[in-house]
Automatic annotation (TrEMBL):
GO terms for cellular component: cytosol. GO terms for biological process: D-alanine biosynthetic process; peptidoglycan biosynthetic process. Keywords: Isomerase, Pyridoxal phosphate. The keyword Isomerase applies. GO terms for molecular function: alanine racemase activity; pyridoxal phosphate binding. It is an enzyme of class 5 (isomerase). Its EC number is 5.1.1.1. Pfam families: Ala_racemase_C, Ala_racemase_N. This is Alanine racemase. SUPFAM superfamilies: Alanine racemase C-terminal domain-like (SSF50621), PLP-binding barrel (SSF51419).
Amino acid sequence: MSRPEVRLSSSIFRANIQAVRDRVAPSALMLVVKDDAYAHGLSWAVDAAIEAGVEWFGSYDIRTGLSVRRLAGGDARIFAWATSTETEIDDALMQRLDLGVGTIEYLGRIIARAEALGAAARVHLKIDTGLHRNGILPEDWASAVRQARRAEQAGLLELEGVWSHIAEASDEDDDIAHAAFRDAVRIVGESGAVPGALHLTASAASWWRPELRGTVSRIGAFCYGIRSADGPELEGVHPAASLVATVSAVEDDRVTIELGSFDGLPSTLSGSLVGTPDGPRTLVSVGPTSSIVEGWPGAEVGAEVVVFGAGAHGEKSATTLAERIDTVGEEILTRLTPRVRRVVAD
Ligand SMILES: *Cc1c(COP(=O)(O)O)cnc(C)c1O
């Protein structure tokens, strides 16, 4: 029985990276690789990114950051922003990861580990610009900066960056966040520090709002070719992943494909369109291990149906499917289970 596959295109991924870099330059791309590179698979994605010249990686957690260090080598800059345990902090310091720091408590723990190990921590301080999800409050900012600067003078810390995260849901809220971010950067400047990495924006704001970009842009989704829900198409950016299922039975006007909810295909997707050798057809129903697609002339066992991605039968993104069930493209990919084989090609 032919199992479904996620086909991953290294060349499309690299072309997306190039398109994103061209778009955001002179801001530097930080490729976000959390959630196993948005379910594309970390190891080939880092290899391809290095080949494409990516210098900054955003790993979310330290464990993933250490994997990126092994794959990418000593020169890559790797930003890990999850608040972590002492053991993980020690590993991060030894492997020269850049740490995102959103609380004074975490800053204190990092400085303590740097002192214990005799190593300087690379720190990016995070200002809360309104999301209230981990970030130093504006009223605590000056004291956090003083603490970081004291540690810097003691050789325990390098203040490499200032950052925050914005919702990218309304221009107005993002503008308010940007103003708070600029205030935080100004206070750091007044302390005499000149951090090189200032970063606020993810995919959507980096692409559409150049005035909000810092010296670095943290981008995941668009590099994988996942556009925003309800967002327009992106020039030069295409899905790097395709989900392909094989026809296992043909009966009258009903074609069975080997892909179902046990593979992570949401059953709420029935009614959406999938790509067949004869053009788009309706996905009639989703069963546990197989699903029914509306037939086409000459349908035969072994034919391939493209559920999403850049296939021979026209491009349809995970986001298009996601919009149908009111979620985001990343969700469609990260829900696919290990039953779905990942196959990487150039
Ligand atoms: C996931 C994430 C990003 C990347 O977001 P995309 O919209 O996928 O580009 C950037 N920054 C932070 C803090 C994130 O968690």
